[in-house]
C-alpha cells in the first residue's frame, strides 16, 4: 500500500495565496472526491501536487510513502507514482500519441529494458478499444485537433497505459457528454483496486454516479472544510453548499479566480 | 554604383576549363558571357541580411580531383547511412567535383528517362539542356552570383522525364564533400515533361571539419503541363563555406511541386526558394525546416509567385535557433494581376533555444488581384513551458521533453522526405545539432 499525505499546504500564484493550509491523506485502493464551489483552489491543489511551474508552494508538505514530493522535479513526481489528468492538456505537434506514450512508459524503465514495440502496440490497441477510441488516434499528433472529449479520453488512455499509484483527475468530467463520461468512468473503475488511488476533482455529483468515491471532501477558501462518505456528495447535489457555509460560519469573501 | 569585385577565375581560365570538358560551343559561350557579366552585375540583396562583407567569390581551387567509387562498399560509413545500398535503384554520387557513381534502372533508361551529371548532359543531351538551362526558372544575369555560377558550373545533375512517364522509385543524389579545398558550383536541372511524375531527393553532406571554398548552388525544376515533381533536399554543408543556394521552380498548367527542404548547413547561408506558378491550376507545396547554431548567419527566402489562375501556393517554414545563430525567414506570397481565384498561404515559426540567438520571421503577402484567397501566420518564441510540464508530468525528463517538442516542430519536413534513409539521416542531423 502507498500513501499520499498532504499537510498544511499553502500555495500561491503570482503572490496571491490560494491554498491556505490544506490537509489530505489518501491511500492506494481508495477513491477520494474533492468538491467545492468555483474558485476555492481545487485545481490549484492538483497543479501544486504535480509541480506546475506557475504555482509556488510557500508552506507545508506533500509526501508519498515518506518521500518529499516538493523536492522532486515534475518528471520525478511522475516516476514516484503521481499522474495528473489535466483539465487542459497541451497539444504537441509532430509527436504522435503512440510515440509519446511509449516514451512515457520507457522513462520508467531501465535502459535496455524498454517495452518491446509489439507488446506496446498490443497493449495500446487493447486499451484504445476499451475506451472506444479510434485506432487512428494513436498516430495522430498528441492532442492536436482533438475535440474536448477526445482529449479527456486520451488522458485516461495515458493513465491506463502508465498505471500510476495515484491519479488526480482535474475536472475530467467538464465538457463531456454522458456517453463520453461513462467511458471515462469505465477507465477509472478498471484501474481501481490494490495499488491504485485516485483524487477526483469535480463540480458535479454527476461523475460520482459512475465513479463511487470512498471519501468525499469539500473545499472552500483554500482548505478542506468537510469530509464524509458518498452521501455527502448526494447532499451537496441536492442542497448546494450554503448549508456547509452556515454550519461552519464561513462568510463569502472574494472568490479567487482559478487558473487552469 | 557598381563595385568591381575581384573574381577568382579569369575569362581565359573559364574558357580553358570549358575546353578541358569538351563542352559544346553554346555552353562555352554561355560561360564566357557569364564571366563578363559576373564582373559587372551587383550582388543580390537578400531582405534584412547585409551580405556586403561576405566573401562569395574567392576559393582555393575551382575544381579538385577526387577518386570515383567503384563500389558502394567503398563509401564511408557516414555516406552509407544515407543510402539504401541494396534497394536504391537510381543513384548518383558526386564526390566534390567528380562524378563518382551512377546507377539507373534499365527500365527507366528504356522509357527515355535521363539521369546523369550535368556536364555529361551538356555534351550528350545538348538540345534539351540548352532549352532549359538558366532560360526559364533562373536567368544568368539576375545578379553577380547567378552569373558567377553560370560561368563556373563544375558539377550537378540533369534529370529529364519524358511525357507520360511515371518514375515509381525515387532518384537519389548525394553530393559528398570530403575535400576542404573543394568549391561546389553545382547546377541541378530537373525537367518533368507533360503528364510525368518523378521524385528526386538530394543530400549535400560534408565530412570535412571546416571547408574553405564556395558553395554556389542553383537548382531549377521545370514542371510542364500536368506533371508532378516531389523534390526533397537535405543540406548539411560544413562551416567555412559561403553558401548561396537557389532552388527555383517553374510550373506550367496543372503541374505540381512538393518541396521538402531540410536546411541544416553549418555554413553561413543565403537560401532562396522561389516557385513560379505559371500555368492555371498549378500548385506548390513548400516545406522548409532549418536549424541554426554557433555564430551562423543565415537568410532563408521562400516565395511562391502566382501568375496562373486557380494556382495554389503553400509555404511552411519552421526554424530552430540556438547559441548565437542569427536567421532571417522571409516568406513571400505574391499574386500577380490576372491570377484570379488563386490561394496563397504561409506559416513561419521560429523556436528560440537560447538568449543570444536571433530569429526574425517576415511574412509578406503582395497581391495585385482582387479575387483571391491569402493568409499568413508567423511566430517567434521559446519552447512552451506548459508543453514541457505536460510531457514531464508523464515521467519524461526535461531534456527528452525538449527533444520531443523540437523534433515535433521540425517533423513537417522529416515526415515528407520520400526516402527512408534520408529521413533517418535528417533526424540524426537534427539530433546532433539541437543537443
From TrEMBL, chain A:
Superkingdom of this protein's organism: Bacteria
Family classification: Belongs to the ABC transporter superfamily. Ycf16 family.
Keyword Nucleotide-binding listed: yes
Gene field: sufC
CDD domains: ABC_FeS_Assembly
Keywords: ATP-binding, Nucleotide-binding
Protein name in UniProt: Fe-S cluster assembly ATPase SufC
Residue ranges of every copy of the ABC transporter domain listed in the record: 4-246
NCBIfam families in UniProt: sufC
Entry-linked InterPro entries: AAA+_ATPase (IPR003593), ABC_transporter-like_ATP-bd (IPR003439), ABC_transporter-like_CS (IPR017871), FeS-cluster_ATPase_SufC (IPR010230), P-loop_NTPase (IPR027417)
GO molecular function (one): ATP binding
A Pfam family of this chain: ABC_tran
Native source species: Ureibacillus yapensis
PROSITE patterns for the chain: ABC_TRANSPORTER_1 (PS00211), ABC_TRANSPORTER_2 (PS50893)
SUPFAM superfamilies: P-loop containing nucleoside triphosphate hydrolases
From TrEMBL, chain B:
GO BP terms, alphabetized: iron-sulfur cluster assembly
Pfam families, per database record: SUFBD_core, SufBD_N
Domain SUF system FeS cluster assembly SufBD core positions: 178-409
SUPFAM superfamilies: Stabilizer of iron transporter SufD
Record domain SUF system FeS cluster assembly SufBD N-terminal: where: 109-173
Entry's family note: Belongs to the iron-sulfur cluster assembly SufBD family.
Name this protein carries in UniProt: Fe-S cluster assembly protein SufD
Organism: Ureibacillus yapensis
Amino acid at each position: 500500500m502507498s500513501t499520499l499525505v498532504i499537510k498544511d499546504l499553502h500555495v500561491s500564484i503570482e503572490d496571491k495565496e490560494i491554498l491556505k493550509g490544506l490537509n489530505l491523506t489518501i491511500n492506494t485502493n481508495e477513491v477520494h472526491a474533492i468538491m467545492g464551489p468555483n474558485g476555492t483552489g481545487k485545481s490549484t491543489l492538483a497543479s501544486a501536487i504535480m509541480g506546475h511551474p506557475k504555482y509556488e508552494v510557500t508552506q507545508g508538505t506533500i509526501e508519498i510513502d515518506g518521500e518529499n514530493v516538493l523536492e522532486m522535479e515534475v518528471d520525478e513526481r511522475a516516476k514516484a507514482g503521481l499522474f495528473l489528468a489535466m483539465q487542459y492538456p497541451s497539444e504537441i505537434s509532430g509527436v504522435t500519441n503512440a510515440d509519446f506514450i511509449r516514451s512515457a512508459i520507457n522513462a520508467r524503465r531501465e535502459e535496455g529494458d524498454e517495452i518491446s514495440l509489439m507488446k506496446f502496440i498490443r497493449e495500446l490497441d487493447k486499451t484504445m478499444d476499451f475506451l472506444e477510441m479510434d485506432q487512428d488516434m494513436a498516430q495522430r499528433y498528441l492532442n492536436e485537433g482533438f475535440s474536448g472529449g477526445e482529449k479527456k479520453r486520451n488522458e485516461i488512455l495515458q493513465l491506463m497505459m502508465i498505471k500510476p499509484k495515484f491519479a488526480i483527475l482535474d475536472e475530467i468530467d467538464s465538457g463531456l457528454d454522458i456517453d463520453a463520461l461513462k467511458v471515462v468512468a469505465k477507465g477509472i473503475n478498471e484501474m481501481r483496486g490494490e495499488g491504485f488511488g485516485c483524487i477526483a476533482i469535480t463540480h458535479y455529483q454527476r461523475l460520482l454516479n459512475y465513479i463511487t468515491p470512498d471519501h468525499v471532501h469539500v473545499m472552500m477558501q483554500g482548505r478542506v472544510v468537510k469530509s464524509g462518505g458518498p452521501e455527502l456528495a448526494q447532499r451537496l447535489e441536492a442542497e448546494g453548499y450554503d448549508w456547509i457555509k452556515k454550519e461552519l460560519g464561513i462568510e463569502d469573501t472574494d472568490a479567487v479566480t482559478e487558473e487552469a | 554604383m557598381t563595385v568591381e569585385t575581384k573574381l577568382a577565375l579569369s575569362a581565359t581560365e573559364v574558357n580553358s576549363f570549358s575546353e578541358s570538358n569538351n563542352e559544346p560551343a553554346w555552353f562555352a559561350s554561355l560561360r564566357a558571357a557569364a564571366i563578363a557579366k559576373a564582373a559587372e552585375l551587383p550582388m543580390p540583396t537578400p531582405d534584412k541580411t547585409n551580405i556586403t562583407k561576405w566573401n562569395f567569390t574567392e576559393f582555393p581551387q575551382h575544381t579538385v580531383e577526387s577518386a570515383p567509387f567503384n563500389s558502394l562498399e567503398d563509401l564511408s560509413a557516414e555516406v552509407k547511412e544515407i543510402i539504401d545500398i541494396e534497394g536504391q535503384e537510381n543513384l548518383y554520387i558526386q564526390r566534390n567535383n567528380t562524378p563518382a557513381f551512377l546507377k539507373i534502372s534499365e527500365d527507366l533508361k528504356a522509357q527515355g528517362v535521363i539521369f546523369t551529371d550535368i556536364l555529361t548532359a551538356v555534351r550528350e543531351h545538348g538540345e534539351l539542356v540548352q532549352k532549359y538551362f538558366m532560360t526559364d526558372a533562373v536567368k544568368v544575369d539576375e545578379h553577380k552570383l547567378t552569373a558567377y555560377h553560370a560561368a563556373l558550373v563544375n558539377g550537378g545533375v540533369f534529370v529529364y522525364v519524358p511525357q507520360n512517364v511515371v518514375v515509381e522509385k525515387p532518384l537519389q543524389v548525394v553530393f559528398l564533400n570530403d575535400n576542404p579545398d573543394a568549391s561546389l558550383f553545382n547546377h541541378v536541372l530537373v525537367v518533368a515533361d507533360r503528364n510525368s511524375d518523378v521524385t528526386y531527393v538530394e543530400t549535400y553532406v560534408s565530412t570535412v571539419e571546416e571547408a574553405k571554398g564556395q558553395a554556389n548552388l542553383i537548382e531549377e525544376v521545370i514542371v510542364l503541363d500536368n506533371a508532378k515533381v516531389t523534390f526533397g533536399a537535405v543540406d548539411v554543408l560544413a562551416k567555412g563555406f559561403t553558401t548561396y543556394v537557389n532552388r527555383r521552380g517553374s510550373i506550367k498548367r496543372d503541374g505540381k511541386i512538393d518541396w521538402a527542404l531540410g536546411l541544416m548547413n553549418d555554413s553561413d547561408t543565403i537560401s532562396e526558394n522561389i516557385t513560379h506558378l505559371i500555368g492555371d491550376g498549378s500548385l506548390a507545396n513548400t516545406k522548409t525546416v532549418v536549424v541554426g547554431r554557433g555564430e551562423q548567419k543565415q537568410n532563408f527566402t521562400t516565395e511562391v509567385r502566382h501568375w496562373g489562375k486557380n494556382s495554389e501556393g503553400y509555404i511552411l517554414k519552421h526554424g530552430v535557433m540556438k547559441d548565437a545563430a542569427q536567421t532571417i525567414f522571409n516568406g513571400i506570397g505574391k499574386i500577380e494581376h490576372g491570377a484570379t481565384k488563386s490561394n496563397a498561404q504561409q506559416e513561419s515559426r521560429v523556436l528560440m533555444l537560447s538568449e543570444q540567438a536571433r530569429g526574425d520571421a517576415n511574412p509578406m503577402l503582395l497581391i495585385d488581384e482582387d479575387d483571391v484567397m491569402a493568409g499568413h501566420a508567423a511566430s517567434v518564441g521559446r519552447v512552451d513551458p506548459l508543453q514541457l510540464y505536460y510531457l514531464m508530468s508523464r515521467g519524461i525528463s526535461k531534456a527528452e521533453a525538449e527533444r520531443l517538442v523540437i523534433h515535433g516542430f521540425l517533423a513537417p519536413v522529416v515526415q515528407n522526405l520520400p526516402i527512408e534513409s534520408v529521413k533517418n539521416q535528417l533526424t540524426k542531423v537534427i539530433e546532433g545539432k539541437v543537443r
